[in-house]
Amino acid sequence: MIILPRSWEQPEISALATSADTVATRIEQILNSANSPLAEHKIARDGLLRVALTHSSFSAENPSLPSNERLEFLGDAVISIIVANYIYKKYPELAEGDLAKLRAAVVATSLFSTISEKLAIPEALLLGQGEFEKGRSKSSILGDAFEAVIGAIYIENGLEVAEVIVLELLGDLIEKESLNPGGYNFKSRLQEYLATKGIDAPLYRISFDSPDHDRNYYAEVWVQGEHLGGGQGKSKKAAEQMAAQVALEALLGSKNRTIPETKGAD
Question: Does the active-site annotation cover 192?
Answer without folding.
Answer: no
